[in-house]
Amino acid sequence: MAIERRDFLRTATAAAIAATNPYWFTSPSSVGELYDDDLTIAAIGVGGSRGRYNRGGKVARQAAKFGKMIAVCDVDELHNDEFNADKLFEGKLKKYIDYRKLIDAEKPNIVVVGTNDHWHVPIATYALRAGCDVYCEKPLTLTIDEGKQICKVVKETGKVFQVGTQQRTEMDRKFLKAIAMVQAGYIGDNVKAHIAIGTAPGEGPFANTQTPEKLHWDFWLGPAQSAEYSLERRKFFRWYLEYSGGKMTDWGAHHIDIAQWAIGMDQTGPEAISGTGKFGNVVPEGFDWVSFFEGKEKLENGYNAATKFSVDLTFANGSVLNVNDEYVSDDGKTKFPNGILFEGSRGRIFVNRGKLTGKPVEQLTASDNRNLEEAIARLYRNKPITTHMQNFFECVKDRSEPISDVYTHHRTMTSCHMCNIALMVGENLRWDPKTEVFVGNEVANNLMARPSRSKFLAEVS
Length: 461
Prior knowledge:
Elements: H1 5-8, H2 13-20, H3 29-34, E1 36-44, H4 55-63, E2 67-73, H5 77-84, E3 94-96, H6 99-106, E4 110-113, H7 120-129, E5 133-137, H8 144-157, E6 161-164, H9 174-183, E7 192-196, H10 217-221, H11 231-235, H12 247-250, H13 252-262, E8 272-279, H14 289-293, E9 306-314, E10 320-324, E11 327-328, E12 335-336, E13 339-344, E14 347-351, E15 356-357, H15 359-362, H16 366-379, H17 388-398, H18 406-425, E16 429-432, E17 437-438, H19 442-446
């Protein structure tokens, strides 16, 4: 698996710059230099006081540093009002409930999508086909087929598309350095990555309650099957497989992404998937998930995502990604709730958002660090290493591909979804990364897509 150091660390022009200016990091002053008042931005899905996962509002405010925010769209009118009242906007934004009406009327240059997960691809697709560049929060997709679809649309439209996986850019570049070390052979060959992404809650059932005023609940549900309102269903949607994928697509979208990049498999996928797990309390043993997503089977209103799991993804190069809610080594000496442990023939390193550790890290020389800085610059496509949002706007300006591109993210999300599908099917699975289908398993292939209500999904006119 390891790449020869002399080949991997071959100096390029940009890498030489990185060597003289460690990590080639762009200063915050360049943000102002990128600001363009003629670049119009619309925020779709911003969260607020009635939400829980409010990344949409945060990234939209980040985007507003680079262009002119002109409109906001949220199916909760209270959240629209709260976002519009922000001191950045002073009540001047146009407000919409329907994303299609916003895009058709305002024709923004850029759309920032921060809705609940099951709305990401429908909204992003509409925006792309309407001529917008798009920044979309992770996880981008609800299903494997959605990933295929959004890749096709990005390629057809030629628009710039950035996914909000900030570990590719930020976090003091710990993950970039870990990737560079693995790819340059600092831990040797036969790399295995142990990934811990945390557990999900499994409570339920919950009582259905009255929909709050100013929340357009049926629009919130959108392409998903009809359901009665409850606070848990709306506020904690991540733990409902109708709208998200639990921890597997939440933190998995980050850590599996980094691990696949490190082992050089971010442009393809695993060939085998195996593992065990447990779903939320409302899910009976042997539940028919295909019938559930088709609306033929019902579950009580409760969290139904996987709560405990250990799944192996095996790749053609022999590397294995072991995905757990919590990692505990066979001897019990190594244990962690969140992060990635890379193990190779010559050693191991651990990385999460707080640290990068391990003997190979401790033994790095000044020369090693200079070489790794060059490698990091190459990983970052020879662009200045900036914030994730700034990278997007730089790419909007020069029409290049962002660091978190749709194609590698689709491969990451495919692995995340395959972990869930393996648990749903309850069998070991084979996958063909070229044709992107499960080999010899009709049930698993049926779980690659979902039936959708088309009420809110009209095409661009």
